[in-house]
């Protein structure tokens, strides 16, 4: 067996450095009732490594919530603005800003969000960052715009974890990227499969399953120090790690006592405890937003269906009833939506359910492995086509879609990281 190589890096490197193979974003659908917003070029933005206005425009366009109008001019954050002019161009809001190099080498990015209807200011923000973090500054400004204009927190300044695999070359990489696919870094590289990455709530660690020991074993990779540790390596299969909302525990699926069942374990690998106890296979556990419940897949009723039980174990209640094959439950961080994969009419599709009403909607066909954005408004999933797998994103209302792909290999097993504090 070939030895696995670990690539060590820091959070700072993740935010700034880029690997050779970036993801490519293709917008496939846009939402209805888009907010028209003009984005001007920032004053002196050419001095920074990243162009702020371009990053902001790309983020807003990708969200599907905005109709972005290219202002075609440079407007600094302190420049006088003719509100009537921009209103006549159909913009409800205008984004202006500037970039300045500070004495310590950092770049100070300042921006203002202006209301052209009421001729006033909606928001302003100043973000100072080192050269390698300037893209993050743009994402933070886009997040602020998204919040002020929609009332919901933006998720542009977040990161993705996914597996990039080339089976012919026996090359499997756990990669980390910005939400727009830029800044790709390799966290783990192996000659054996890697599956099921799961972010810790503080964004400093990723749990995953590796087959390097010729069996599935659960590891936790520290993204700050580059170190990793085995968390669960019991007899049989060790799979499907998912963090509790407070980061103190993982829920996992183990076959050490026969059929695969759901267990909990402390984040340091201690305190292993069995939670489910059925005659079937219980797997793919995922904590609810409040940490009080666990959703999981079980075939105890025949075909696989989604169930819910207390985080301390015990009796489970069935959640899905339509279709004979429902797997991969994921719950949004706001606790409002359940996403899962259902096989109906011969194919696998991504579904979402409003947990308050029980109403469900089919969001995408040919889908697997869903993962929510931390604001609960978007779901990323793996999408197979053309002989390889790519990642796609759809809004929970189904109106907005975009796809992330790479030039070579397949990317799958997405996990959308938490908000960065």
From TrEMBL:
Q: Where in the cell is it found?
A: Periplasm
Signal peptide positions are 1-21
Q: Which Pfam families match?
A: PD40 (PF07676), TolB_N (PF04052)
This protein's GO CC annotations: periplasmic space
Q: What's in the keyword line of the UniProt record? A: Cell cycle, Cell division, Periplasm, Signal
| Main location class | periplasm
Q: What's a BP term from Gene Ontology annotated to this protein?
A: cell division
**What residue stretches are annotated with the TolB N-terminal domain?**
23-121
Q: Does the keyword Cell division apply?
A: yes
Main function: Part of the Tol-Pal system, which plays a role in outer membrane invagination during cell division and is important for maintaining outer membrane integrity.
Q: How does it assemble?
A: The Tol-Pal system is composed of five core proteins: the inner membrane proteins TolA, TolQ and TolR, the periplasmic protein TolB and the outer membrane protein Pal. They form a network linking the inner and outer membranes and the peptidoglycan layer.
The family annotation for this protein states: Belongs to the TolB family.
- Name of the molecule in the record: Tol-Pal system protein TolB
């Amino acid at each position: 067996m070939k030895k696995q190589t670990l690539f060590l890096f820091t959070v700072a490197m993740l935010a700034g450095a880029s690997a050779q193979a970036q993801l490519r974003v293709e917008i496939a659908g846009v939402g209805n009732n888009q907010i028209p917003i003009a984005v001007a070029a920032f004053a002196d933005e050419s001095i920074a490594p990243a162009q702020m206005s371009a990053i902001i425009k790309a983020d807003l366009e990708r969200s599907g919530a905005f109709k972005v109008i290219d202002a075609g001019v440079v407007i600094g954050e302190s420049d006088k603005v003719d509100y009537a002019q921009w209103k006549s161009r159909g913009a409800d809001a205008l984004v202006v800003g500037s970039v300045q190099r500070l004495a310590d080498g950092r770049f100070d990015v300042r921006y203002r969000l202006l209301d052209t209807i009421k001729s006033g200011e909606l928001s302003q923000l100043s973000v100072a960052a080192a050269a390698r973090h300037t893209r993050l500054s743009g994402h933070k400004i886009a997040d602020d715009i998204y919040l002020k204009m929609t009332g919901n927190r933006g998720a542009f300044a977040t990161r993705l974890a996914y597996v990039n695999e080339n089976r012919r070359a026996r090359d499997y990489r756990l990669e980390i990227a910005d939400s727009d696919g830029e800044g790709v870094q390799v966290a783990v590289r192996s000659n054996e499969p890697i599956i099921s990455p799961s972010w810790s709530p503080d964004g400093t660690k990723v749990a995953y399953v590796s087959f390097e020991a010729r069996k599935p074993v659960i590891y936790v990779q520290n993204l700050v120090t580059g170190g990793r540790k085995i968390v669960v390596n019991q007899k049989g299969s060790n799979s499907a790690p998912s963090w509790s909302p407070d980061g103190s525990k993982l829920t996992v699926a183990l076959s050490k006592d026969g059929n695969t069942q759901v267990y909990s374990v402390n984040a340091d690998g201690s305190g292993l405890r069995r939670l489910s106890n059925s005659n079937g296979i219980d797997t793919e556990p995922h904590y609810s937003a409040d940490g009080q419940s666990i959703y999981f897949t079980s075939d105890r009723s025949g075909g696989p269906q989604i169930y819910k039980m207390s985080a301390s174990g015990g009796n489970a209640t069935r959640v899905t009833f339509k279709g004979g094959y429902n797997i991969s439950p994921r719950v949004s961080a706001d606790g409002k939506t359940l996403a899962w994969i259902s096989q109906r009419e011969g194919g696998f599709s991504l579904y979402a359910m409003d947990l308050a009403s029980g109403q469900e909607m089919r969001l995408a066909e040919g889908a697997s492995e869903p993962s929510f954005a931390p604001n609960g408004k978007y779901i990323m999933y793996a999408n197979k086509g053309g002989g390889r797998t790519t990642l796609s994103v759809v809004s929970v209302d189904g109106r907005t879609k975009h796809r992330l792909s790479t030039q070579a290999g397949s990317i799958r097993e997405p996990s959308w990281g938490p908000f960065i504090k």
